[in-house]
Design a protein that fits this description.
The structure holds three protein chains of three kinds.
Chain A lengths: L2 H42 L1 E4 L1 E5 L3 H7 L2 H26 L3 H28 L2 H33 L5 H13 L2 H11 L7 H8 L14 H5 L11 H10 L4 H27 L3 H9 L4 H30 L2 H4 L13 H10 L4 H29 L4
Helix pairs in contact in A: 1-16, 2-16, 3-4, 4-10, 5-11, 5-13, 5-15, 6-11, 11-13, 13-16, 15-16
Chain B lengths: L2 H19 L17 E6 L3 H17 L5 E6 L3 H13 L6 E4 L1 H8 L8 H4 L15 H6 L1 E2 L5 E2 L7 E8 H6 L9 H11 L7 E5 L3 H10 L17 H15 L3 E3 L5 H7 L3 E7 L3 H9 L8 E4 L9 E5 L2 E4 L4 H14 L2 H11 L6 H6 L1 H6 L1 H12 L1 E3 L7 H16 L4 H19 L2
Parallel strand pairs in B: 1-2, 1-3, 7-8, 7-9, 11-13
Antiparallel strand pairs in B: 3-12, 4-5, 6-9, 6-10, 6-11
Helix pairs in contact in B: 2-14, 9-10, 11-12, 18-19
Chain C lengths: L6 H29 L3 H6 L18 H9 L2 H32 L5 H10 L5 H14 L6 H5 L6 H11 L4 H9 L4 H12 L1 H17 L2 H6 L8 H12 L3 H21 L1 H11 L4
Helix pairs in contact in C: 1-14, 3-14, 4-8, 4-11, 4-13, 9-10, 11-15, 13-14
The chains are: A mainly alpha, B alpha/beta, C mainly alpha.
Chain lengths: 388, 438, 282
């Protein structure tokens, strides 16, 4: 056999081996991961009350959004923000004011459009779903930055030469290891509305009266302002943004506490690893140059930790949008719409309402949102991440 | 005409009239069916001693039935979990043969045609109830006939219970009262007197469930659903009065929300709360909790929910059992199990263990001794016989409406405007009703 | 952050860390202390502050554990969880190593496309997967049997990604020389790559252990009898069944939690190292 046909045979054998090796994974992931997406798409096009009924085309999506024009405007506005981001980022590379001006201009228009049309979209479409979108966003905003910040803080502390480091690491990671069903059983009591509960006794230390915690659907800013922010106007736009201004519900905040407790140790760990990868010479050099602790932190540590931060942020945000278990175990029906993120809302649409078609449409919307978020994050972070 | 021809014609004519005109055929629809050796599964919602009793009864059936039918009973979860499980099972065509379901849950299952119309079995000449039909409390049997599905009987009741007021008699006596409250005003006074922040005691542990809301509305002579089945009426005077009353008691500290599952039961057993409102099915549980309480046993019982109506109007409810569409043999076997479980001897055993109400009058005779020894059960049973029993609507979508009702009740307790909240609730309930229609 | 720092700063750090750790443990202390109380005590004599004597039981009711153990079939549930987890981990290691090796070291048409598609599956929300997977599993007749709890998890894009990252760092020359000596790809994988990859393989094993052991929603739906019920589902069912008996509910929770904590303390070092290398949030 000559060299060429030998190589061809070997190439074919290699290909065969390659396909064989990936076959088990691809098979399983196709059946249990990819097929469901298409099946869900199929279901979303029908009226499906546990069993299939009639074909509806895009009617479920229509019901979800209410008004196609509002949806298009909002999507265009979001696109506008992306465009503005792009234009503004170009100002760094080129010194032409053209980019800054057009960037700002596009941004302002996009924001105005959003401010006006998002409330109309929410009004026209499924209020429950838009409410759960708001809950999801609050949940994400309330958990990822805190976990990142606390994780970084603790990792920095634990990086110092102090005794019992390993003990602390172990203790902080413990909540992550334990089944959430078990910890939820305890948290339910710690955050109950009884005056003797842990949360209320802490409040008592500060001289505040007991609150309802997991049962409280009112927003925290509303509560803190002494309930002066109550909605009275008939204006759709004002009402909608007011509901945002009231903040996440106290029930959701309680669930956030639970999530911090569970995940902070995990974030600490990842950051610890990130810190360990920073070469000591950099610190030593900085010391020689007489740099203060804070300067060192902001000029050296943080930038070099950016790949870790990017990774954690990405995973964190995707995780919060997908999250189900850690919220479901603690949610109380009294708080209902103010504590259910999209994943829980979809769950109830499947089971409580038995509206499989409609729930499938919501699921796909969630999937698309997660995809878009991922892509956006990759774009943004690409420029900020320094690989040292 | 010849005489014989006339005679024969007459005979033929009479025979024809007899055959055509007879009210029902003498032949059973299921005549050819043979359920021998069939194996079926039953998903129930009972735990602990209820589960033990049920499984003992089923064991008895397995050993004694003449067709060698074998039944496997599985705990499918409490009502919500069982419902979710059943929905998934129907979606995947992997259903049990018998499942416990509330009337509106059965309706939800029937939207996809998953259940069997039990009228066919109840009325069947060979396998049906026959003469025993009269022994059943007709009101109970009627609850499972569903107008939304043209009168199909989607379930059969193995037992029933009432929503009643649990009260601590010793405590009432200590405060100078001679008996449980008859009117809502009595209730208010008693709650106020019992409330003492220094000892952490209060009058009533608020049950925010939709069944309790229903109980309050009917106690004032109202309704929550339109008589013609076209929707709900949550914006009535009785509803407003109920909510306003409860809010008043709450604002004055006479009542508190329930902080954790069964918190009210534990508080009751430990003299923290004077009144709770719950199902009579809780009687054995309350007895158990009281025994384990800090102060040990005390005099307590159940009474009618305070009412403005002349006779007490009480919420009668209970899960029935539904039979799923599988194949004729299994469906018949399932029906035979149901018949067995509703025989007076089995009913008597079930009632003694669970304090549910039997669905047949003749069981009462068998229970004489039990009733004599258990004054609380007797009190409950007497109420069943002397009050106006009303049932919640079996509409599809009612599960979701119940969620909305509980949320609205909580909102009102937290200070929302009653009129506005109820208007919203009424609107939402009726929207759900339309959305969920079969 | 350097090595220097006045000692008062260090003391401050230790104090802060200790306070944080203490707050972090309170839920566990609560779980244990209240599981040892009698039912009446959990109602009448309860506190949330560990310094308050009412936080602790007057007389520890160790019998609660015995009751909880007997009432729920924790022994069976543990056995199930162990089997399910073991099978899943083994299967996952096999499929992930094979795939990661192929994606990292072999060249075949469509390789990168397939890899990207697999990665995209990581963004799919759970609820999208629940009902279709249930229908598939039901049609295959696996409901309430071991395959339903294991097969869907025998492959995972995330673990493939992890291993591939590591495998691609292994120098090609090592593999080439083996090829020239006539070794098959499989032999190269087993005798060269795997021994070098102990750390990431250990990572995969531990991550899937935590995930499988604690997983609740799927097993809840596919098990109908106690036969193959794993510990997380068993605990959920027990908590429902225990009803008002708070002390038993918490005793059950403690029982469910102890094995994981024990294993954690034993394998601490590897645990933390494993999780660090991965970055999986849930």
């Amino acid at each position: 056999m000559d060299l060429r046909s030998y190589k061809r045979v070997r190439r074919r054998k290699d290909n065969l081996t390659g396909y064989l090796f990936i076959l088990p994974s691809v098979l399983i992931i196709s059946i249990f991961g990819i097929f469901p997406v298409f099946f869900t798409l199929y279901v979303s096009l029908h009226k499906w009350r546990i069993k299939r009924s009639r074909f509806l085309g895009l009617a479920n999506y229509g019901e979800l959004f209410g008004n196609v024009w509002y949806l298009l405007i909002v999507v265009a506005a979001l696109g506008g923000i992306a465009l503005a981001g792009y234009l503004l980022s170009r100002t760094k590379s080129s010194s032409r004011p053209r980019f800054t001006i057009s960037g700002v201009f596009v941004l302002l228009i996009a924001l105005a459009a959003l401010a006006v049309f998002v409330p109309y979209l929410a009004e026209a479409g499924d209020g429950g779903m838009f409410g759960s979108m708001r809950v999801t966003i609050w949940y994400s905003l309330g958990t990822v930055p805190v976990q990142l910040g606390l994780g970084l803080l603790l990792a920095s502390f634990l990086y110092q030469k102090i005794p019992a480091k390993q003990v602390f690491r172990v203790v902080y990671l413990l909540p992550y290891i334990v089944p959430s069903v078990a910890s939820a059983a305890v948290f339910e009591r710690l955050f109950s509305l009884k005056p003797e509960s842990f949360a209320n006794q802490v409040l008592a230390l500060f001289g505040r009266s007991p609150m309802q915690w997991l049962l409280e659907p009112k927003g925290i800013f509303l509560l803190m302002s002494g309930e002066r922010m109550a909605a009275t106007s008939e204006n759709i736009i004002a009402n909608y943004w007011l509901s945002w201004a009231q903040g996440p519900s106290l029930a959701l905040l309680s669930i956030m506490f639970f999530n911090w407790w569970v995940f902070v140790g995990y974030y600490t760990l990842i950051y610890t690893n990130g810190l360990a990868n920073i070469p000591r010479q950099l610190y030593e050099a900085a010391e020689v140059d007489g740099a203060g602790k804070l300067t060192v932190f902001f000029r050296i540590t943080l930038p070099l930790l950016s790949p870790t931060t990017y990774f954690l942020t990405l995973l964190g945000i995707i995780g919060t949008f997908k999250a189900f278990a850690h919220i479901y175990v603690l949610r109380h029906p009294a708080a209902r719409g103010e504590v259910d993120p999209m994943s829980v809302q979809i769950f109830f649409t499947f089971f409580r309402k038995s509206r499989f078609g409609y729930a499938a449409a919501m699921s796909l919307l969630l999937f698309v949102i997660v995809l878009v978020l991922t892509l956006v994050q990759r774009r943004i972070m690409k420029e900020r991440v320094h690989y040292g | 005409m010849r005489r014989s021809t006339v005679f024969i014609t007459a005979v033929l004519f009479v025979t024809a009239v007899l055959c055509w005109g007879s009210p029902q055929s003498e032949e059973s629809v299921f005549k050819e069916l043979d359920p021998t050796g069939v194996q079926i599964t039953y998903w129930h919602q009972f735990t602990r001693f209820q589960q033990e009793t049920l499984e003992a009864l089923i064991e008895e059936f397995n050993n004694s039935n003449e067709w060698s039918i074998k039944v496997t009973a599985e705990f499918g979860g409490r009502y919500d979990d069982l419902y979710n499980k059943m929905v998934t099972a129907i979606a995947a065509d992997s259903v049990p043969d018998i499942v416990a379901a509330y009337q509106n849950e059965a309706a939800a299952y029937q939207v996809s045609g998953a259940l069997v119309d039990l009228n066919d079995y109840v009325d069947d000449p060979q396998w049906g109830l026959g003469a025993e039909r009269d022994d059943y409390f007709e009101g109970f049997l009627q609850q499972d006939v569903n107008a939304q599905f043209s009168g199909m009987r989607l379930g059969f009741p193995p037992n029933r219970s009432l929503e009643l007021l649990y009260y601590n008699m010793d405590w009432l006596k200590e405060m100078g009262f001679s008996g449980p409250p008859q009117s809502w005003d009595d209730f208010y006074q008693m709650c106020k007197k019992a409330t003492d922040p220094s000892t952490n005691q209060y009058g009533y542990a608020i049950n925010t469930g939709a069944s309790n809301v229903f109980a309050q509305v009917i106690s004032r002579g109202g309704e929550i659903a339109k008589a013609d089945g076209s929707g709900y009426t949550y914006n009535t005077r009785q509803m407003k009065d109920s909510m306003a009353f409860m809010k008043k008691v709450y604002d004055e500290g006479g009542s508190r929300k329930i902080a954790e599952p069964y918190g009210e039961q534990n508080d009751f057993a430990n003299w923290k709360v004077l009144f709770t409102m719950a199902s009579t099915a809780g009687l054995p549980y309350y007895a158990g909790s009281v025994a384990k309480g800090e102060q040990g046993a005390f005099d307590w019982s159940v009474a009618a929910i305070p009412h403005t109506t002349s006779r007490p109007a009480l919420d009668i409810y209970g899960a029935s059992v539904s039979v799923t569409k599988t194949n004729p043999q299994r469906q018949l076997a399932a029906w035979l199990l149901i018949k067995f479980l509703t025989q007076p001897e089995q009913q008597a055993k079930w009632v003694a263990a669970t304090n549910y109400f039997p669905v047949r009058k003749s069981t009462v005779e068998q229970l004489g001794e039990y009733i004599g020894k258990n004054p609380n059960y007797k009190a409950a049973f007497d109420l069943l016989l002397s009050s106006d029993a009303k049932a919640e609507p079996p509409f599809t979508g009612y599960s979701e409406v119940r969620d909305a009702v509980a949320a609205a009740y909580n909102k009102i307790l937290d200070g929302a405007d009653i009129a506005a909240t109820l208007e919203d609730l009424d609107e939402e309930a009726n929207r759900i009703h339309l959305e969920a229609a079969p | 952050m350097g090595r220097s720092g006045s000692s008062w700063l260090k003391v401050l750090l230790v104090v802060l860390l200790a306070m944080g750790a203490f707050v972090s443990i309170i839920p566990f202390l609560y779980m244990v202390s209240h599981s040892l109380k009698s039912l009446a005590e959990t109602v009448t004599r309860s506190s949330a502050i560990p310094f308050d004597p009412r936080f602790w039981p007057r007389v520890p009711q160790w019998v609660n554990y015995k009751v909880a153990w007997q009432e729920a079939r924790f022994g069976l549930y543990f056995r199930n969880s162990v089997i399910i987890t073991a099978v899943t981990i083994c299967g996952l290691l096999v499929t992930s190593s094979l795939s990661a090796f192929a994606f990292a070291k072999l060249r075949f048409p469509g390789r990168d496309l397939v890899f990207s598609i697999l990665l995209a599956t990581l963004m799919i929300p759970q609820t999208v997967l629940l009902i279709p997977n249930f229908i598939v599993v039901a049609k295959l007749g696996w409901i309430d049997r071991l395959p339903a709890l294991t097969v869907p998890f025998l492959a995972s894009a995330f673990h493939i990604f992890l291993l591939r990252q590591f495998f691609s760092q292994i120098p090609d020359e090592l593999l080439e020389s083996a090829r020239i000596d006539g070794a098959s790809h499989l032999r190269s994988l087993l005798s060269i790559v795997v021994p070098l990859s102990k750390a990431p393989i250990f990572t995969v094993a531990f991550l899937s252990f935590i995930y499988t052991w604690n997983s609740l929603q799927w097993p809840l739906v596919v098990t109908q009898t106690p036969r193959w019920r794993p510990i997380a589902v068993g605990l959920t069912v027990f908590i429902t069944e225990a009803g008002p008996e708070t002390h038993l509910r918490l005793a059950g929770a403690v029982i469910a939690v102890i094995p994981v904590i024990t294993m954690y303390f034993i394998a601490q070092r590897q645990f933390t190292e494993a999780i660090t290398r991965s970055g999986l949030k849930e």
